[in-house]
Amino acid sequence: MGPGPSNVYPEVTSALVRPVIGHLDPSFLTVLDETMERLRQVFKTENSLTLPLSGTGSAGMEAALVNFVEPGDPVVVAVNGLFGERMCEVARRIGAEVVRVEAGWGTPVDPEAVLSAHDSPKVIAVVHAETSTGVRNEIAPLGEGKKDALLVVDTVTSLGGIEVALDEWGVDIAYSGTQKCLGVPPGLSPISVSKRARDQLLPAPTSWYLDLNLLAKYMESKSVAGRVYHHSAPVSMVFALHAGLGVLLDDGLDETWKRHLECGRRLQDGLEALGLRLLADASCRLPQLTTVEVPRTLSSGLDEAECRRVLLDRYDIEIGSGVGPLAGKVWRIGCMGHTARLKNVDALLGALAEVLRR
Ligand code: PLP
Predict the structure, then answer these.
(1) pLDDT for the residue numbered 127
(2) Pocket test for ligand 1, best of 157, 237, 286 (most atoms within 8 A of CB)
């Protein structure tokens, strides 16, 4: 069987086949400017330094740390899943003093524990929506209690799917990815930096490619002449992001979050109706990423990987495996961006009932 239905909005597919122009073409600059303005709206921020970084979400993670953290700086990281772990590793490689504040995989991190973990951290880093567990971590209390620390928030799986409000929450640096709730292929990492954080940018971070000082000079100028060449922007991906953000803003942020919530609820209720157990508690459960425990005995005689394989081969539906300590124990079901539609939820629930013979 061929590949299943597209994960991205149809408008994004059309944008991807637009004729490719040069990255110094004035008409590309217009699209880039509009993309940055759309990102500000979606991030809910006035931050001037808001741009699509060339690279996936992990590039955003590196940029968010390497531009602010120097060897020896204390960095408090909330860890309750794979991506909190990744933040620790990035900070460790920079030479930071990493202070881990852990919670179990499937449980949110306690904001008080994060805030009291160090007297004066340079950075407090947290993942808003942990894709490895389906858990939402609270951000606003961290913004309230951060004191002089810079608050770095990973919004890779949250942006566009649930509320993200950088200015209201006191977030200093946020990064995201295009391939989740924005409904665009992977390839760019939107990043936004507050004025307060911008004033603390390291003048020469160890990564040249992710140096936000250089990127700002390249992307922020309103004129071709004012742009200082840094790298060749991936023009088609910027077109795609511009289109995806356009869909989101035309539909409205509130409406889009509501669509994700309705799909998440329908999916989670349906899974429970099939007798399956959800990993995350309802109080912190993401609508766009559901983690469901694999039943101990699968009546169909298939193992968990075979169930996923049948879903893909027979029904064109891809669900994820568990990772880290949850490998083999859970399935992770994304319902994000263009794919967050009730008909997709119903198709999955029907297919799963057949595969599990329930
Ligand atoms: N952070 C979170 C929460 C993610 O879910 C992911 C990827 O799934 C990343 C970071 C890394 O993003 P990428 O795979 O686009 O590099």
Answers:
(1) 99
(2) 157
State which ligand 1 atom lies nearest to the alpha carbon of 132.
5
CB of 177 closer than 6 angstroms to any ligand 1 atom: yes
**Polymer length in residues for the chain:** 358
225 and 101 within one domain: yes
Asked whether residue 162 is assigned to any structural domain, the reply reads yes
Mean per-residue pLDDT for 23-49? 96
Residues of the domain holding 325: 253-356
Q: What is the pLDDT of residues 129-140, one digit of tens each?
A: 999 999 999 999
User: What CATH number is given to the structural domain containing 262?
Assistant: 3.90.1150.10
| Shared-domain flag, residues 21 and 111 | yes
**Predicted structure pTM score:** 0.97
Mean of pLDDT values over 323-351: 97
Ligand 1 pocket test: which of 7, 127, 156, 326 has the largest number of ligand atoms within 8 Å of its C-beta? 156
Q: How confident is the model at residue 3 (pLDDT cuts 50, 70, 90)?
A: low
- CB 295 near ligand 1, within 6 Å: no
For ligand 1, whether the C-beta of 300 sits within 6 Å is: no
Instruction: Answer whether 131 contacts ligand 1 (Cβ < 6 A).
Output: yes
Q: Compute the distance between CA of residue 86 and CA of residue 106 in angstroms, rounded to an integer.
A: 17
Sign of CA dihedral 138, 323, 354, 257: positive
Regarding whether 309 and 205 lie in a shared domain, the answer is no
Give per-residue pLDDT as tens, 184-234.
Answer: 999 999 999 999 999 999 999 999 999 999 999 999 887 778 888 999 999
Look at residues 251, 278, 299 and tell me which one is the last residue of a structural domain: 251
Is residue 187 located within the same domain as residue 177?
yes
| Ligand 1 atom closest to the CA of 81, numbered from 1 | 3
| Total domains in the fold of the chain | 2
CATH number at residue 134: 3.40.640.10
Contact 82 CB / ligand 1 (< 6 Å): no
Q: Which amino acid is at 86?
A: R
Q: Counting beta carbons within 10 angstroms of the beta carbon of residue 283, is it exposed (0 to 12), middle (13 to 18) or buried (19 or more)?
A: exposed
Measured over the CA atoms of residue 274, residue 301, residue 320 and residue 326, the dihedral's sign is: positive
Please state whether beta strands 289-293 and 74-79 pair in parallel, antiparallel, or not at all (unpaired).
unpaired
